[in-house]
Amino acid sequence: MLAVGCTSDDDADEATSEADGATGSTSAALSRSDRKPTIAVAVTDWTGARLNVAIAEELIERRLGYPVEPVEVLETGQMLRDLQRGELDAVLEIWPSSLDPDELEIIGSPAVEQLGELGVVGKIGWFVPRYVLEQHPTAETWQGLVDPTVAADFASSETGTRGRLLGTDPGYEQNDEEIIGALGLPFDVVYSGSDEATLSELEQATAAGEPILLYWWSPTAEIRRFDLVSVELPPRSPACVADLEAGEPQRCDYPVDRLLKLGSPELVETAPDVHRFLSNFSLTTDDHLLMIDRVENRGEPLELVASQWISANQALWEQWFD
């Protein structure tokens, strides 16, 4: 959506032109031709996604002079359909593994342009607080969880002597039961029911220094808040992927998600400098982890965190305009 918007300079030009009498109509026409379209950028309720938009918004407006409109979206499918219809100009964070077949078809259509990777790597997997590795150093990999005596330390009332792997909302894409069965681990999956319930369990366990193994993902605030460490599962090899495609149970790690940026093909013609900027725009996983930590764990204003990132990284973002 390339809605017409005016900067304050445009408003000043129009006011001056009206005062100029006979030359007013000509000046006003020139002012209208100088207006730049408003860039509509989708923003979801994830802190990382909001940080992406806050950084891009400040730089686009400051350096390129285009007004930016962050558009709140609640559902991925609707967001992609709006992008396909031209009602959005850009989406700065997409997790490919979360897309269903219809959504994958949209991002592969001619009405949507893939603007490259964001640079942030998302990862679903199994995590433990770092102190657990001090208690059980072998728990850094799945092989260290095969020992029933180690597994028993992760047990709960629901699992008896077997270890517990704490899941979250059962509606999420979780293949932990398959992985546990395929690897022969003495663990059972217990679903908390929600992210909030999982975090409550995590808070209690860390406060008491008790072993806990959970399904979670990065980058999130909890990685730094609880000093979570990823447990190494068998690599997602081509052979494992082929087995999965053939309908075999999952026996390897979750896929790495290289987050994508999407845009409207219209940007190339209507705002080529914005198109170039968004194509070059990139952040790292560490950038996200540090900034999300400041916003969610330390309570710092998101806009301040974004602006301070910009101040500290000028040498990097200057290249995005080349």
Description of the structure:
This protein has 322 residues and is α/β, with parallel strands linked by helices. It has 2 domains: 35-112 and 264-321, D-Maltodextrin-Binding Protein, domain 2; 123-256, D-Maltodextrin-Binding Protein, domain 2 (3-Layer(aba) Sandwich). It is built from 16 helices and 10 strands. The protein has helices spanning 8-19, 24-34, 47-64, 76-84, 101-107, 130-135, 148-152, 176-183, 195-208, 221-225, 238-245, 267-270, 272-280, 285-297, 302-312, 314-317, and strands at 2-5, 36-43, 68-72, 90-94, 113-129, 163-167, 187-191, 213-218, 228-230, 256-263. Strands 1, 2, 3, 4, 5, 6, 7, 8, 9 and 10 form a 10-stranded mixed beta sheet that branches. β2 (36-43), α3 (47-64) and β3 (68-72) form a beta-alpha-beta unit. α3 packs across α15 (302-312) and α4 runs parallel beside α5 (101-107). The protein starts with a strand and ends in a 5-residue tail after the last helix. The model is unreliable at 2-33 (pLDDT under 50).
